[in-house]
Write a structure and sequence with these properties.
There is one protein chain. The protein is of the alpha/beta class. It has one domain: Vaccinia Virus protein VP39 (Rossmann fold). It contains nine helices and seven strands; from the N terminus they run ααβαβαββαβααβααβ. Helix 1 packs across helix 8, helix 2 crosses helix 3 and helix 8 runs antiparallel to helix 9. The longest helix is centred in the last third of the chain and has 21 residues. The protein is globular.
């Protein structure tokens, strides 16, 4: 089964495609405090959960969401309609790395999608190209090592030891890229567990409801993911969302 479809099905009960609770998502957006009539961009928006909530919080803002697949767009539009913000949301099926716009943005998000740019540093370089000079803000979510991973775990993850830093090193990487850290949220173990149980559980439920080749493929993916999480990176891989200001 295609990876994008697996991800779409797995996020059915947790549309925030990161280990972040609804309350903490809103807290981060409130902390951002974009200016009046803000332009907001999400690179790798998925189901646009961040943008829909941001438009609800800031009724004069407009937003663009970009994702390589439109599998989450129908759900995003439905939620935007429900919240009364659909007229201020534009969704673009495109590569986040190739997206261009005619005007800069006041707030640019890239949470859990830094792989689209090849890591944190190139993500921050790409984000800067979209930000309003001096006053532009970024919300960027990235993994970090809660504790050093074992060589065996690195092999299972297909990762290098320096793919992530520890929390202090992750903040340093962001600031070395030309940003000041305004705020941050390190996801709790409870947020991780809620995310992973939802991810594997939603995919498992879909698989059991759809017997056949695709169902078997989805069930296998759910089991493999759960094993890698529970017997691998749980408590080792962390996630931090940084609110950054361009300097």
């Amino acid at each position: 089964m295609e990876r994008n479809l697996i991800s779409h099905l797995a996020h059915a009960d947790h549309p925030i495609a990161a280990p972040i609770s609804e309350d903490n998502l809103e807290r981060l957006l409130v902390r951002a405090r974009p200016p009046a009539r803000a332009r907001i961009l999400d690179l790798g928006c998925g189901e646009a959960a961040w943008l829909v909530r941001a438009l609800s919080l800031y009724p004069d803002a407009t937003a663009d969401g970009v994702d390589l697949t439109d599998s989450g767009f129908a759900r995003a539009k439905e939620e935007a309609e429900r919240r009364g913000v659909a007229d201020r949301l534009r969704l673009h099926r495109a590569s986040a790395a190739d997206f261009t716009a005619g005007e800069p943005y006041d707030l640019v998000l890239c949470v859990g999608a830094t792989h689209a740019f090849g890591g944190l540093a190139p993500t921050l370089d790409a984000v800067r190209a979209h930000l309003r000079p001096s006053s532009g803000l970024a919300l960027v979510g990235e993994g970090f090592w809660e504790r050093p991973p074992s060589p065996g775990l690195l092999v299972r993850l297909g990762a290098e030891p320096d793919e992530y830093a520890d929390l202090a090193g992750t903040v340093a990487r962001a600031e070395n890229a030309g940003y000041a850290t305004v705020y941050g949220h390190a996801s709790t173990l409870e947020e991780w567990d809620e995310y992973e149980w939802s991810w594997t559980g939603s995919l498992t439920r879909w698989a059991l409801d759809h017997p056949g080749e695709e169902g078997e493929s989805a069930l296998s993916a759910a089991r493999e993911h759960r094993e890698l999480w529970l017997d691998g990176y749980r408590g080792v891989l962390g996630f931090v969302t940084l609110l950054l200001r361009r300097v």
